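Researcher: Batch entry, complex prediction.
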Amino acid sequence: MERHLTLIALFAALIAALGLIPQLTLAFGVPVTAQSLGVMLCGTVLGAKRGALAALLFVGLVALGLPLLAGGRGGLGVFASPTAGFVVGFPFAAFITGLIVENWRNGPLALVAGVASVIGGIAVLYAFGISGLAWALDRPLTEAALLVTAFLPGDVIKAVLAGLVTAALARARPDSVLSRA
Amino acid sequence: MISLTSPVRTGAHGWPAGVKLAALCVATVVLFARADLAFQLTAAATTLAVTLVGGWTFARAALSALWRLWPFVVLVVLWHGLTGAALDGAVIALRLLTAFLLANLVTMTTTLSQMIAVVMRVAAPLTRLGVNTRALALGMALVVRFTPVLTDKGTALTDAWRARSHRRPGWRIVIPFAVLAIDDAEHMAEALRARGGTTP
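Model: Structure tokens for the complex:
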């Protein structure tokens, strides 16, 4: 119980700490950060349920007013802004990523975790983010999707990194990779 | 850890957090339900007036947070303007700014401990369903503890890398960073267990 709780809190903090790495700001002011790497790792390392709980804990603390999002953003305003969909999507992205890693057992972990990160951390997260953008800006989904295509290459690199880190952790600390425990 | 509560005291700092959150919910639902320009203009002006009641320093901090939305406001106004729906664009942009400002006002006038008290009160009935709310409170405290510790570990690894190489550290420190973090969490779990753990 205590182990699972501290690991969940650790990964919630990891999402926050990765947001502190200096960011690049691309077009339209959406910052490119390592934060979504943290969400992918929640799923690949902790598995579906605990990964989602870690991401949910992070999102909850942002809502309560801690400036944990990249660029020191936080508070309830985040959920009233057009990019709210991405933040709301964090727990779902971690859940799907974790679900894939838990169930796809025959295959090298780096590959499995990488593919899971692409599906969960990119496809699922973008689905939430794009829906949020389209709703807030009152534009069709296809037009909203165009706005985020610029972030795709960066996120693919993060998914590859998430796969490599998960495989390395499974070698160094096999007991702590709960998705395969 | 620094939270986003405004250090400038306003009258609203003393209001119950639950009331402010409920009012915010109602206001946001109404904002999104109405699509006429006159209503949105009135709502924006009222919210601005409420912000200014907090004093100049408070209002400046609240309004400067709105600056983050400029790409979206420009986008909405241009996009709708070009497709011949300038009026709709104005409504959406105004609603965006008002909703954000209102939500931000609640965050700025409510301390983290007040917010956590509301969460614990709302979560209290869940204990009957077997949810451990003590673990939830402990989890929140642990995140606040872990975040600066992780940042320090990252800085230490970067410094160590810089002492050895003239190249930038980049992704090479990510794996040792993850291992250090996991070890810290396992030690923390042992320490918690030794002190009674999460059982109430």
